[in-house]
């Protein structure tokens, strides 16, 4: 009986060793699904809308470089499709953003133009690998946006939607002298730098025009002075002065409030508003949120 038990224990140990060896030779592999590819494209499209991108083609490939999904935004040149696919494939094959290769080839004294002869190699900014749990599961390429940098921004937004990665944004600090200088003339204190908000150090010395921001909500904090502020109603003689920005001579109807130091008011997007009967000066912060 003891011999039999020892034999069984020995066989079991050998079996466990074989299983452990087999497991050591096989790894769990993440795969990109069609739903995942669509999620990447949706996030890139949302980024394109947020940045008012004039166009773009977004391509998603799996970890073998096979095309899974592609979407061409309006007004994008026809060749953008092949270029975006090439960027996505290059990012997957080399497991790094295509920016690395464009900068390597263009850099003085280091450029390796012979690399451009490689098959299925597109060394243009705008391709990014898609990572899940630090595994490359695919790639996304964008071509035809306003610039190479914007191509890359859209691609990164798409890849991040699946990987969950979020690059840490830098802290922006403005010394009191900068803030005072901005209020002295009325200026943009922070231009957003690709984020969904801006900060304006605003100054008024007289009444303004009626305004409507189709995309941006205004969060207003009054620092100094008073103003009669009208919200809602209908803009008179409204005209588009920029994409999604309307100006007019006045507002019919609406609700009137007297703003003073310390007041905060939030104006949602698509809401007409007008400053009138303004003290000199009237200073206020505006945080624009898109």
CATH superfamily of the largest domain: Haem-degrading domain
Overall pLDDT metric: 85
Shape: elongated
Let me know the largest β-sheet.
5 strands, antiparallel
Tell me which CATH architecture of the largest domain applies here.
Answer: 2-Layer Sandwich
- Name of the CATH class of the largest domain: Alpha Beta
How many distinct beta strands?
A: 17
Describe the structure.
The protein has 290 residues and is α+β, with helices and mostly antiparallel strands. It folds into 2 domains: 34-163, 2-Layer Sandwich (Beta-Lactamase); 176-289, Jelly Rolls, CATH 2.60.120.10. 31% of the residues lie in helices and 31% in strands. The protein has a 5-stranded antiparallel beta sheet with strand order 5-6-17-8-15. A 4-stranded antiparallel beta sheet has the order 2-1-4-3. The chain has a 3-stranded antiparallel beta sheet with strand order 7-12-11, with no helix packed on it. The protein is elongated.
What is the element layout, followed by pairings?
Layout: H1 2-24, H2 34-50, E1 57-62, E2 67-72, H3 80-94, H4 99-106, E3 127-132, E4 135-143, H5 148-163, H6 176-185, E5 187-190, E6 197-204, E7 210-213, E8 217-224, E9 227-231, E10 234-236, E11 239-242, E12 245-248, E13 250-252, E14 255-259, E15 264-267, E16 273-276, E17 282-289
Antiparallel strand pairs: 1-2, 1-4, 3-4, 5-6, 6-17, 7-12, 8-15, 8-17, 9-14, 9-16, 10-13, 11-12
Helix pairs in contact: 2-5
């Amino acid at each position: 009986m003891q011999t039999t038990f020892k034999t069984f224990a020995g066989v079991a140990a050998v079996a466990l060793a074989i299983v452990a060896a087999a497991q050591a030779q096989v790894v769990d592999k993440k795969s990109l699904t069609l739903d995942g590819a669509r999620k990447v494209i949706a996030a890139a499209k949302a980024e394109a809308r947020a940045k008012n991108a004039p166009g773009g083609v977004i391509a998603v490939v799996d970890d073998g470089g096979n095309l899974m999904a592609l979407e061409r935004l309006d007004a994008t040149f026809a060749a953008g499709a092949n270029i975006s696919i090439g960027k996505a494939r290059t990012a997957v094959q080399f497991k790094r953003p295509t920016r690395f290769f464009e900068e390597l080839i263009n850099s003085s004294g280091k450029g390796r133009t012979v690399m451009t002869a490689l098959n299925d190699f597109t060394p243009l900014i705008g391709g990014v690998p898609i990572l899940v749990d630090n595994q490359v599961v695919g790639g996304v390429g964008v071509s035809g946006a306003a610039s190479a940098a914007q191509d890359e921004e859209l691609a990164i937004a798409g890849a991040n939607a699946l990987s969950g990665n979020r690059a840490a944004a830098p802290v922006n600090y403005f010394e009191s002298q900068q803030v005072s200088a901005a209020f002295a003339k009325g200026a943009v204190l922070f231009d957003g730098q690709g984020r969904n908000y801006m900060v304006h150090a605003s100054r008024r010395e007289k009444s303004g025009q009626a305004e409507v921001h189709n995309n941006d909500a205004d969060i207003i904090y009054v620092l100094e002075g008073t103003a009669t502020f009208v919200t809602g109603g209908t803009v008179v003689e409204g005209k588009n002065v920029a994409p999604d920005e309307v100006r007019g001579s006045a507002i019919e109807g609406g609700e009137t409030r007297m703003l003073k130091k310390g007041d905060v008011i939030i104006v949602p997007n698509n809401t007409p508003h007008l400053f009138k009967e303004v003290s000199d000066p009237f200073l206020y912060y505006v945080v624009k949120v898109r």
